[in-house]
TrEMBL record:
InterPro entries documented for this protein: Uracil-DNA_glycosylase-like_sf
Protein name: Uracil-DNA glycosylase-like domain-containing protein
Cited SUPFAM superfamilies: Uracil-DNA glycosylase-like (SSF52141)
Taxonomy, superkingdom: Bacteria
């Protein structure tokens, strides 16, 4: 990353290169990104997405490169990249709104869910089932085509990255973002790789491209609120 010049934005042709490619299987490619290297072991809540998208990857590189040029350590650069890239864009706005509506701020005893995304707050850890960005035919992987559970390359990536990461946190509240993440967690439960603990089922993926997001949220809202109240009490 030190070899990259500081730029206001990086292109796919700059970052989706063989030097940054970790592995591939057919049309599926996995690239390195620095932001999921930082893990917050003291977090009380763990938000779990599918895989970082291109926008997150670009922001993470931009932030980390800037930090390295300012002579921060690699660990500090990764932390700054995490703060800048996690659930970036409209997805973060949607996410905060829904988490506020179900009362996560009350569960954590904070004034507003927005507080969780501030740099000095240690209550939140955001991550992905697959730590590094996955692209299919150079496009963001949507979690469906192919299915994570049915694709050995993708499922092995989950086992190698998500499970060791989860072990570093002390029994957090896990909020899977969307049905694709839930399906994988159910499989991990069935295989006795994780325990049920506190998993908040029914939360939609916050992407603006998720057309059923509002409908799914309204349908499951009361149940999620009930679970949070019971866990808090």
């Amino acid at each position: 990353m030190n070899s990259f010049p500081i730029q206001p934005k990086y292109s796919k042709t700059q970052l989706l290169i063989n030097d940054l490619k970790l592995s591939s299987s057919g049309e599926i490619e996995m690239f390195y990104s620095p932001h999921n290297e930082y893990i917050n072991p003291s977090a009380k809540v763990m938000l779990v997405g599918i895989t970082p998208g291109w926008q997150q990857m670009e922001i993470a590189y931009r932030t980390a490169i800037q930090a390295l040029k300012e002579h921060h350590s690699y660990e500090q650069a990764c932390k700054k990249a995490k703060m800048g890239a996690r659930m970036a864009g409209s997805m973060r706005t949607n996410l905060i709104q829904m988490l506020q509506e179900i009362g996560l701020h009350d569960y954590l005893t904070v004034s507003h869910v927005q507080r969780l995304f501030e740099a000095d707050c240690t209550l939140l850890h955001t991550t992905s089932l697959i730590r590094y960005p996955v692209l299919v035919n150079k496009q963001n992987y949507n979690g469906h085509q192919p299915s994570i559970s049915k694709n050995p390359f993708l499922y092995e990536a989950v086992l190698e990255s998500f499970l060791p990461e989860l072990e570093q946190l002390k029994h957090p509240l896990i909020i899977p973002l969307g049905k694709s993440v839930e399906a994988v967690l159910h499989q991990l439960l069935d295989e006795h790789r994780i325990d049920g603990g506190k998993i908040l089922w029914g939360f939609p993926h916050p992407s603006g491209a998720n057309g059923s997001r509002v409908k799914q949220f309204l349908h499951n809202k009361a149940g999620m609120q009930k679970n949070l109240r019971e866990w808090r009490d």
